[in-house]
């Protein structure tokens, strides 16, 4: 059973209720199922199933995805209805509600839903496509105006009208079906003053349910000035007497800009007055004293609205006086700009028109006055400038100025272009590092005028003086000042100099560009590394590059920083950067618990390898240091003074006790020393010279091996070694005295020959502490020819009787140290700091030799204790390094010596400034 169709109307984005009665025909009947259908869709779009429920309120409601949560069936209302909120355009159509009862026949209700789509909001455009809204313009008075209004058509089709003051001024519109829009174009032939601030409205409507969509604009106009006048009227003027001229103009919007002109030259007004807002009057006052140079000139006042071309009004006031000099600078009449080349003669003309005549003419080049200088070929006269055999550096801007009794005048600026043959640009790469059988692109950048059509010639000079011409790769058209050649050295003789010549229309390059092709290598280590910033979870480190990057392009060099925990020696993270060696570390794990800091290993890297490592200790900000409860820091002044005295006395006691023990051990050491004439020397390397070019420094064992208070002798970096050094080098026994000392220390010696023409290191066999005879003979032969012969490295270690372990061998490389399994102390005497022992260990392992370095305090009352990287620390082996000038910082010195004293008491032995304790 069905009921007649019902028509409902709804508006898009509104809501609608579609009724459906669910009242059963009989009192003993109930609703079992409510189904909603739309159009010809066979499946229901909304369902209420009460067959498994106690009542209709608890029945399950389901809807298709098209409706979603927009559809709700209201059973409380009489009659019940299906509400759609919000309504979509696609909701329009025929709906059928079928109600199934448990006993009675089903009832169908048919509803036609018509959905109205209001037209879109009108948009107003200018002829150029610019969108207008609110205050539109400003438009110029007298100009035509075309405005187009567009709106989406909607459903049903709307009307689109132009209105002004509630009256329709244009009702012609048409539909663009392809774009689904309606359009109305309003054309105003000419804007008048009466159109100022007029309101124009575009209105679209397609129903009487919703308000029409409309957009309004207000026209803003620029208006022309109406009149202009100068007071007083024209009259004769006497030279030297002031005159005041007043110019007035009205009717312009915005106010007219008044300018004063003397002939074609603008004159600055003495005073200006502009009324604000609306139609206004502008006033400008010019006060000047006429002179003879103003004769027959015209003073003009011009009123103009700059926004309206051609709106200017002008009033003239003719003068009867003289005029000042007028200047014009040109090339000589027989010269053409394109013909001026380096080495030719050039002259410039300064044309002067003045009354009275000029008394002086000045020539300037790039702002600097020129004087006659025949040695440089510069000749200055009143009306011309001669440049004999003009040079490249003389190209630039020239001016001339003239003076008479009325004033000074300056000519126009003239740029003198001087063409010249090619020459090398200074800022270009001159050294290229490349391996054998490797291709590199070498660029030749030239400075020339003109730059176009430069012809390039390449040649190669090897180390034997042979020369060969090469073929370049043609540069791109927009870089005619550059030529590129791809070069691949095949043998050692292919290393040498590449020469680049250029030729342009002026001539051939006189001095070629020289590029050195060398064997590529690893870069120098980074320098001047320092921590520049810190946060609670990270820090920033900046370095500067070493002087040598391996001879490769800068883009092929990268920088690596590896971070290790100082306490645990564990790897944390790493950063690789290019361009500039600036390393930013963020969000380091467990940074808030790291008080000791991080050890950062920094190196430079190119395709040939990695530089030696630069070490730096970095810290993060520890917030807990700044968040302790204030009450813990409260100490009464008297108690603070007492505590300070106690601590000071304790530290002094520690210090005195330590010195006494040092003297005691020194006395014992002297008793064990050999005779003076059995003196032997070993060489130790300064920590700050591991990557330098200086040679090592010898340390004498004559009085005490550990007496570092003596100043070191210096081994010269080149030339023949001294006789004493020769003895040290060829000795087959390193040191009977220093070898297995009763004091529990030994010295392991390793030699590296500095052989000419090779970087290959010589390795000493495992656990060898003496120099073999064959090596001694080789070293002596090299010593005869001069130059640095050998570098000797010493390892200081502590042992305990027969339990002492020997060290593994070292692998030594030029420019730095690396090792397989050795713990090595690089000891050196610091310049100007007596007894300074520096420890720098990188990637070194050993179980029987442990090293600790106590560095000088970096700030007051703060002492850093650092362990060498990857060294297993034993509790009874320490080396303490302290600068000889520690007493210059007595507070940090006592503080750190106290720490050393405690460490020495907890362990078997300790070395302080080289003395056993």
UniProtKB/TrEMBL annotation:
Give the highest taxon in the source lineage: Eukaryota
Note whether Iron occurs among the keywords. Answer: no
Q: Which residues form the Ig-like domain?
A: 4-108, 122-218, 225-320, 325-411, 422-511
User: Known Pfam families for this protein?
Assistant: C2-set_2, ig, Ig_3
Coiled-coil parts of chain: none
Q: Which UniProt keywords apply?
A: Disulfide bond, Membrane, Transmembrane, Transmembrane helix
Its localization reads:
Membrane
Kindly give the membrane topology term recorded for this protein: Single-pass membrane protein
Transmembrane intervals? 638-660
Q: Name one GO cellular component term.
A: membrane
Q: Which PANTHER family does the UniProt record give?
A: OBSCURIN (PTHR23278:SF19), SIDESTEP PROTEIN (PTHR23278)
What is this protein identified as? Neural cell adhesion molecule 1
Gene behind the chain: LOC100906338
């Amino acid at each position: 059973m069905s009921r007649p169709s019902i028509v409902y109307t709804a508006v898009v984005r509104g809501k609608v209720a579609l009724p459906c009665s669910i009242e059963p025909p009989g009192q003993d009947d109930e609703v079992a199922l409510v189904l909603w259908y739309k159009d010809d869709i066979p499946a229901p779009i909304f369902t209420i199933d009460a067959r498994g429920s106690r009542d209709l309120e608890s029945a399950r409601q389901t809807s298709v995805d098209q409706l979603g949560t927009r559809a709700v069936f209201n059973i409380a209302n009489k009659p019940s209805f299906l509400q759609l909120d919000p309504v979509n355009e696609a909701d329009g159509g025929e709906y059928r509600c079928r109600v199934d009862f448990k006993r009675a026949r089903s009832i169908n209700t048919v509803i036609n839903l018509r959905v109205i789509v209001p037209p879109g909001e009108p948009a107003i455009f200018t002829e150029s496509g610019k969108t207008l809204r609110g205050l539109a313009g400003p438009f110029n008075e007298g100009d035509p105006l075309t405005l187009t209004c567009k709106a989406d058509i909607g459903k049903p089709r709307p009307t689109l009208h132009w209105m002004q003051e509630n009256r329709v001024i244009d009702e012609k519109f048409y539909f663009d079906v392809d774009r689904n829009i309606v359009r109305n174009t309003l054309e105003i032939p000419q804007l008048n003053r009466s159109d100022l601030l007029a309101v124009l409205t575009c209105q679209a409507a397609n129903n009487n349910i919703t308000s029409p969509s409309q957009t309004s604009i207000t026209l803003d106009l620029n208006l022309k000035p109406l009149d202009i006048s100068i007071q007083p009227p024209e009259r004769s003027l006497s030279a030297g007497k002031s005159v005041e001229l007043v110019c007035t103009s009205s009717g312009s919007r915005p106010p007219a800009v008044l300018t004063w002109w003397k002939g074609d030259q603008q004159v600055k007004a003495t005073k200006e007055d502009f009324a604000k807002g609306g139609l206004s009057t502008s006033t400008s006052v010019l006060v000047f004293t006429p002179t003879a140079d103003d004769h027959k000139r015209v003073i003009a006042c011009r009123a103009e609205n700059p926004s309206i071309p051609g709106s200017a009004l002008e009033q003239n006031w003719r003068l009867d006086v003289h005029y000042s000099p007028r200047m014009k600078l040109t090339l000589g009449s027989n010269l053409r700009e394109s013909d001026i080349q380096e080495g030719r003669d050039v002259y410039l003309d300064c044309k002067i028109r003045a009354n009275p005549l000029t008394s002086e003419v000045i020539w300037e080049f790039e702002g600097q006055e020129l004087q006659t200088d025949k040695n440089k070929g510069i000749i200055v006269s009143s009306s011309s400038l001669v440049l004999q055999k003009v040079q490249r550096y003389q190209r630039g801007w020239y001016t001339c100025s003239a003076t008479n009794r009325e004033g000074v005048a300056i000519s126009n600026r003239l740029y003198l272009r001087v063409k010249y043959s090619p020459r090398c640009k200074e800022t270009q790469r001159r050294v290229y590092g490349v391996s054998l059988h490797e291709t590199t692109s070498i660029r030749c950048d030239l400075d020339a005028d003109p730059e176009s059509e430069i012809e390039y010639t390449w040649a190669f000079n090897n180390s034997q003086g042979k020369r060969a011409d090469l073929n370049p790769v043609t540069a791109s058209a927009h870089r005619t000042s550059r030529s590129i050649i791809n070069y691949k050295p095949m043998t050692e003789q292919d290393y040498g100099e590449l020469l680049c010549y250029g030729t342009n229309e002026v001539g051939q390059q006189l001095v070629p560009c020289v590029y050195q092709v060398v064997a590529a290598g690893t870069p120098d280590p980074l320098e001047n590394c320092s921590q520049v910033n810190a946060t609670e979870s990270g820090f920033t480190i900046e370095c500067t590059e070493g002087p040598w990057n391996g001879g490769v392009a800068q883009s092929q060099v990268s920088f690596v920083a590896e971070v290790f925990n100082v306490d645990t020696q564990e790897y944390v993270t790493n950063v690789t950067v290019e361009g500039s060696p600036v390393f930013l570390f963020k969000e380091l794990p467990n940074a808030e618990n790291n008080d000791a800091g991080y050890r950062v290993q920094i190196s430079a890297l190119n395709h040939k390898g990695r530089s030696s490592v630069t070490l730096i200790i970095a810290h993060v900000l520890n917030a807990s240091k700044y968040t302790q409860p204030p009450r813990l820091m409260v100490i009464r002044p008297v108690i603070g003074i007492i505590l300070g005295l106690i601590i000071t006395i304790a530290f002094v006691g520690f210090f005195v006790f330590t010195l006494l023990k040092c003297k005691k051990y020194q006395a014992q050491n002297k008793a064990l020393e050999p005779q003076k004439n059995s003196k032997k020397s070993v060489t130790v390397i300064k920590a700050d010279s591991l990557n330098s070019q200086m040679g090592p420094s010898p340390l004498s064992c004559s009085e005490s091996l550990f007496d570092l208070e003596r100043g070191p002798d210096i081994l010269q970096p080149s030339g023949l070694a001294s006789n004493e050094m020769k003895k040290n080098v060829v000795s087959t026994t390193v040191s009977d005295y220093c070898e297995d000392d009763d004091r529990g220390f030994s010295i392991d010696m390793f030699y590296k020959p500095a052989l000419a023409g090779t970087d290959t290191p010589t390795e000493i066999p495992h656990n060898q502490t003496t120099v073999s005879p064959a090596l001694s003979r080789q070293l002596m032969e090299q010593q005869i020819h001069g130059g640095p012969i050998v570098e000797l490295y010493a390892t200081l270690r502590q042992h305990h009787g027969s339990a002492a372990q020997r060290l593994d061998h070292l692998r030594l490389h030029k420019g730095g140290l690396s090792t397989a399994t050795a713990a090595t102390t690089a000891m050196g005497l610091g310049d100007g700091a007596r007894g300074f022992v520096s420890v720098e260990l990188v990637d070194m392992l050993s179980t029987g030799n442990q090293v600790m370095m106590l560095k000088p305090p970096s700030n007051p009352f703060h002492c850093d204790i650092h362990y060498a990287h990857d060294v297993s620390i034993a509790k009874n082996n320490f080396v303490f390094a302290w600068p000889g000038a520690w007493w210059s910082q007595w507070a940090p010195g006592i503080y750190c010596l106290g720490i050393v004293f405690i460490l020495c008491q907890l362990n078997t032995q300790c070395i302080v400034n080289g003395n056993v304790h």
